[in-house]
């Protein structure tokens, strides 16, 4: 521990301001974090102590330096190790900007694996990959820059699948914790040591080494060489910038990760079936996200890249054949992405944008004649449907002529006629949409149990009301709502001549009430609702006072008001008057003001 403090003092001392004691240079295609771990180990420090000594209070070890490099850190490394600035910048991932991706947001850069925990905060994302054979053969082991890329899943030199976690404990690789300070024994571990179980990542068993077929190896080499050249040859479009090709490849991977909709299988399942693979080995995510591909493990990313390479092979013939065989159009493939490169968008829009094909009567009759001659009887609906495309399976047949039901035509459950319908709001209880038939002008709800009441029930309700029965008793007797009974009575009264008295009685029983203040039975108008309870309020036409029905009303007499005023004139306080009369102080104050205003308006 004391030796580590001495090394920290040497780094800060005046004598070492120009260059560090061990100015290690970055190796070929080395990652910045790997270089920092080697530098700290060469000075006898952990990465945390080294960064705190060189960049105090900067939190360097907590940053993703390859994605978010700081000019101050890069300048210090170039000056202290006497390394050209171009080599220092080559250790970051900014060299891929404009060749592999366009850096528009540091939060989610395309094709770059990120450190940190997953969204569920339970598992750690594997942000770095490695090849155990490459680390074993290195004279001084180091991690390559391309191992941070999500599209790199194979080591071209050893033809093996990369690994993104420890082969013993399964934890993600974390370089900042590979070298630790063991109290009393100095530094412990190397850059190839697992931070969790302290096993050497180079000592991987032979049964865990996964070899890859030549086709996948060839496509991996193509993906690595394209960013270096800066362009890719596309059939029909000529050479395009390499990042445009990778944008199209990323769109294909997003489609393979998109779940199915409306009972249809996903594009991934169709692709697995077309190329003879098992889709049960790769699970779809719960919801489609832009960065789902970067969150997958190396084995799953390798399977998806293999599928994408077969779809993009012989462009665009193989891709169009796959989409047409599974009835995938422009809506499923390219409509929901506004950043498609032109070489991909042109093929998808021109070849997969199609309207709904409409069969003619001659074509439809030829199918019927063929099936009748083949089977010896008139074909059924199920026998005809296989000869139609999936987009036309919503056709209803009447006398074997296609009658389209999609659009704004439906069959009314009341008049049983297929006519144009209109929207008529929603059901208040469950929010289901309601529609109105233009033929019978009646509203209905789709897939709901319709209750039909006969004319005899309506006439019975009207007769019972004329005999003097209450509406609530009639509704209970007929097992319907009181609103329905009231509407039936009103409709029958309008149709029956000489029933004005029935309508007047119905209206009087609805709006005539007894005022709790003046005790007069008059017509009361509505006056809003009670705040907080939504209870209706009414206003008496006689005394012009508002009240709430079925509410305990406290009515104070004129003698109480006069007594309160006399006590106030005698010098009693308002609180004492309120306590004596068992009312509120606000009521007493209002009575006094009203009495003063009535006696003397100018007072």
Count of individual beta strands: 16
Average predicted local confidence, pLDDT: 78
The percent range for helix content is: 25-40%
- By secondary-structure content and strand pairing, the structural class works out as alpha+beta
Main beta sheet, described?
4 strands, antiparallel
Strand order within the widest beta sheet: 9-10-11-12
As a whole number of angstroms, the C-alpha radius of gyration is 42 Å
| Low-pLDDT sequence parts | 390-407
Shape: flat
What's the number of helices?
A: 22
Distance between the termini: 92 Å
Assess the beta-strand content as a share of residues.
5-15%
Summarize the structure.
This protein is α+β, with helices and mostly antiparallel strands. It has 22 helices and 16 strands.
């Amino acid at each position: 521990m004391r030796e580590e403090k001495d090394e920290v003092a040497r780094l800060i001392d005046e004598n070492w301001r120009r260059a560090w004691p061990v100015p290690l240079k970055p190796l070929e295609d080395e990652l910045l974090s790997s270089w920092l771990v080697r530098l700290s180990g060469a000075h006898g420090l952990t990465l945390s102590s080294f960064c705190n000594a060189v960049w105090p209070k900067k939190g360097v070890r907590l940053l993703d330096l390859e994605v978010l490099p700081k000019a101050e850190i890069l300048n210090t490394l170039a000056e202290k190790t006497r390394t050209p600035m171009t080599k220092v910048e080559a250790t970051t991932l900014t060299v891929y900007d404009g060749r592999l991706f366009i850096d528009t947001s540091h939060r989610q850069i395309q094709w770059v694996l990120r450190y940190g925990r997953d969204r569920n905060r339970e598992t750690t994302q594997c942000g770095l990959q490695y090849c155990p054979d490459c680390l074993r053969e290195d004279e001084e082991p180091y991690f390559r820059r391309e191992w941070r890329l999500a599209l790199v899943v194979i080591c071209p030199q050893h033809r093996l699948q990369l690994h993104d976690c420890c082969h013993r404990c399964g934890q993600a690789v974390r370089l900042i914790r590979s070298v630790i300070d063991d109290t009393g024994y100095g530094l412990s571990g190397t850059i190839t040591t697992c931070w969790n179980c302290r096993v050497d990542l180079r000592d991987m068993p032979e049964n865990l080494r996964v070899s890859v077929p030549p086709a996948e190896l060839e496509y991996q080499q193509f993906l690595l060489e394209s960013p270096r050249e800066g362009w890719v040859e596309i059939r029909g479009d000529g050479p395009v910038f390499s990042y445009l090709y990778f944008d199209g490849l990323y769109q294909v991977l997003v489609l393979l990760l998109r779940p199915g909709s409306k009972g249809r299988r996903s594009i991934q399942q169709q692709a697995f079936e077309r190329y003879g693979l098992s889709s049960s080995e790769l699970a779809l995510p719960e919801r489609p996200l832009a960065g789902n591909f970067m969150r997958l493990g190396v084995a799953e990313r390798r399977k998806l890249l293999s599928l994408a390479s077969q779809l993009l092979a012989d462009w665009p013939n193989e891709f169009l054949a796959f989409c047409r065989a599974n009835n995938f159009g422009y809506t499923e493939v390219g409509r929901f992405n506004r950043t498609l490169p032109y070489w991909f968008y042109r093929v998808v829009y021109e070849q997969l944008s199609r309207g709904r094909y409409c069969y003619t009567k001659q074509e439809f009759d030829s199918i019927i004649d063929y099936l009748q001659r083949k089977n010896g009887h008139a074909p059924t609906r199920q026998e005809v449907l296989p000869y139609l495309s999936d987009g036309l399976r919503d056709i209803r047949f009447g006398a074997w002529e296609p009658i389209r039901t999609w659009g704004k035509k439906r069959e009314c459950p009341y008049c049983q006629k297929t006519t144009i319908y209109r929207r008529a709001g929603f059901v208040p209880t469950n929010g289901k949409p309601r529609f109105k038939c233009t033929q019978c002008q009646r509203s209905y709800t789709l897939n709901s149990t319709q209750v039909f009441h006969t004319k005899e029930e309506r006439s019975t309700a009207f007769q019972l009301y004329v005999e003097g029965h209450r509406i609530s008793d009639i509704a209970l007797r007929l097992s319907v709502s009181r609103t329905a009974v009231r509407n039936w009575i009103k409709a029958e009264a309008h149709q029956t001549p000489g029933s004005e008295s029935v309508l007047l009685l119905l209206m009087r029983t609805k709006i005539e009430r007894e005022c709790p203040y003046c005790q007069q039975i008059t017509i009361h108008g509505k006056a809003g609702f009670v705040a907080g309870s939504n209870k209706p309020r009414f206003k008496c036409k006689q005394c012009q006072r508002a009240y709430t029905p079925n509410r305990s009303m406290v009515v104070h007499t004129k003698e109480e008001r006069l007594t309160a005023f006399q006590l106030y004139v005698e010098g009693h306080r308002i609180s004492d008057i309120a306590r004596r009369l068992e009312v509120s102080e606000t009521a007493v104050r209002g009575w006094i003001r009203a009495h003063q205003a009535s006696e003397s308006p100018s007072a």
